[in-house]
Design brief:
- It contains six helices and nine strands, in the order ααβαβββααβββββα.
- By secondary structure, the chain is α+β, with helices and mostly antiparallel strands.
- It folds into two domains: 4-150, 60s Ribosomal Protein L30, Chain: A (2-Layer Sandwich); 155-191.
- It is globular.
Length: 211
C-alpha cells in the first residue's frame, strides 16, 4: 500500500514541484475515488471504471492525474475549464458520480494554521496535509451527461474535410449539406489564427536523432 506521503512525492515529481495545489489534487482524488467505490484507481480493473472531469487546468490537475493514472490521451481525464478548483469522479460500472470542490474558507483556515510561518507556500502545504477532510472539501452527488464521442474506447472512424483534406475524428466533423468540413474550413472559432506555412524537413526524424 502506497503511503500518502509517497503519493505527494510522486505528484510533485510529475508536476515539477510539490505545491499547495498538488496537495489538494492528491487529497481530492483519494476522497473522490473512495466515494464512488474505487480504492485503487491504477490497478488494471479499476482504471477502466474511472472517468474524471476537472474544472481547472492548474496544479491540482497534475495531482489528480498522478494519483489516479487518468490522462487526456486515454480520454479518462477531461479538462472543463470553469476556473474552479473542483473535479467530478465518475464510476462507469455503477454510474455514480461525485463532485469534489474546495471549501471557500479552506484557504483562510490553512493560513490560520501557521500564522508565523515565513514561507507562505510551506504553510499552505503543511496545512492542506493536516486539516480534516471536511474542513477542506465539499462533496455532492451529481449526474454526468456525456455523449458517446466523449467516452474512452477504441479510436473512432475518421472522415476527411472535403475542403482542406485534413482527417477528422468521427463526431467532430461538420456537415454542410452533403459536404464534410473541419472547424477551420467551416470558419468556426479557433484557438489559433493561421499566418503562413513553414518548412518541416529535417525536424526530428530518427536519422536526425542518430547523428
Amino acid at each position: 500500500m502506497v503511503t500518502i506521503e509517497k503519493l505527494y512525492q510522486q505528484a510533485g515529481e510529475l508536476h515539477g514541484s510539490t505545491c499547495p495545489g498538488v496537495i489538494l489534487g492528491v487529497r481530492m482524488s483519494l476522497l473522490g475515488c473512495r466515494l464512488i467505490g474505487i480504492d485503487e484507481p491504477k490497478n488494471s480493473e479499476n482504471r477502466k471504471k474511472l472517468l474524471i472531469l476537472v474544472e481547472t487546468d492548474r496544479c491540482a490537475t497534475d495531482g489528480i492525474q498522478s494519483v489516479t493514472g487518468c490522462s487526456i490521451g486515454r480520454r479518462t481525464l477531461k479538462v472543463v475549464d470553469y476556473g474552479i478548483l473542483a473535479a467530478t469522479f465518475y464510476n462507469f460500472e455503477t454510474k455514480r458520480a461525485v463532485r469534489i470542490s474546495v471549501r471557500t474558507d479552506a484557504r483562510a483556515k490553512a493560513k490560520d494554521q501557521h500564522p508565523h510561518e515565513v514561507d507562505k507556500n510551506l504553510a499552505y502545504i503543511t496545512a492542506y496535509k493536516t486539516l480534516p477532510t471536511e474542513e477542506i472539501f465539499i462533496a455532492e452527488e451529481v449526474t454526468v451527461d456525456l455523449s458517446s464521442f466523449e467516452l474512452p474506447g477504441p479510436p473512432p472512424p475518421r472522415s476527411q474535410c472535403n475542403v482542406c483534406g485534413e482527417e477528422i475524428l468521427s463526431g467532430r466533423e461538420i456537415h454542410r449539406g452533403q459536404t464534410i468540413v473541419c472547424r477551420r474550413c467551416a470558419r468556426l472559432p479557433l484557438y489559433y489564427k493561421p499566418t503562413k506555412s513553414i518548412p518541416v524537413s529535417g525536424s526530428g526524424n530518427q536519422a536526425e536523432f542518430d547523428r
